[in-house]
From TrEMBL:
Sorted UniProt keywords: Membrane, Transmembrane, Transmembrane helix
Pfam families: ExoD
Transmembrane segments: 124-145, 151-168, 175-199
InterPro entries in the cross-refs: ExoD (IPR010331)
UniProt protein name: Exopolysaccharide biosynthesis protein
Signal peptide: none
Domain of life: Bacteria
Length: 208
């Protein structure tokens, strides 16, 4: 299988094409609910890749938390084997479409490069049976990433991106790499959280 015909290459080209088509209709922003509708309410894995990539793009205050809870909602839909339905508070959040289009085009280029090294292997780690543990992992990680602490979501999100990419490309080795990156990220996030807690307690103590 060539990189051009790899599953992940086809998926990322589809994302870019759909977003470009929406932008050509003179839309400036797109709600998260509309994004789910566009890519498919049952395209859990594809949407997990998209939102994890969006989480790497800097945004306004509250953006990271919104994406984290969106990730959690998608994973819950996967866990329950049901179509994705975002709560209004999250689903009505608008994202700038021009930024999404540029990001999707970059993703296509990166996917073309990564697909040269990633290929279907150890498929038992990426089959339908993996949906349950995958969804539970994403829910746990997204709840941690939703904590209002700066930089707490960066490394775990990289791990989720690798897993999502590998799941779509049926690459079990990539899933293992993503799990390691996620574990490291969670360890760093916990360390940051504990450090912030101790700093807060020290600050409160100094005021006493």
């Amino acid at each position: 299988m060539t990189a051009r015909n790899a599953p992940i290459t086809r998926y990322t080209r589809r994302i870019a094409s759909l977003l470009r088509r929406a932008a050509e209709q003179d839309q400036s922003h797109m709600t998260l609910s509309r994004l789910v509708e566009l890519l498919g309410p049952r395209a859990h894995r594809l949407l997990l890749l998209v939102v994890s990539l969006f989480n790497m793009v800097p945004g306004p205050p509250g953006y990271g938390g919104t994406i984290a809870w969106t990730t959690c909602a998608i994973a819950i839909g996967m866990l329950m084997a049901r179509p994705i339905r975002l709560p209004g508070l999250i689903g009505n959040r608008k994202l700038p479409l021009n930024v999404m289009v540029r990001a999707s085009e970059q993703v296509v280029r990166v996917a073309n490069i990564l697909a040269r090294f990633s290929r279907p292997r150890m498929r038992w780690l990426t089959g339908a049976a993996a949906n349950l543990p995958y969804a539970i992992l994403v829910i746990v990680v997204s709840v941690v990433m939703a904590l209002p602490i700066p930089f707490i979501n960066a490394i775990p999100n990289v791990g989720l991106c690798i897993i999502a990419f590998s799941m779509l490309n049926r690459d079990g080795i990539g899933v293992i790499v993503g799990l390691v990156a996620t574990a490291i990220g969670l360890g760093v996030a916990i360390a940051i959280f504990v450090g912030a807690f101790h700093l807060g307690m020290a600050a409160v103590g100094s005021m006493g």
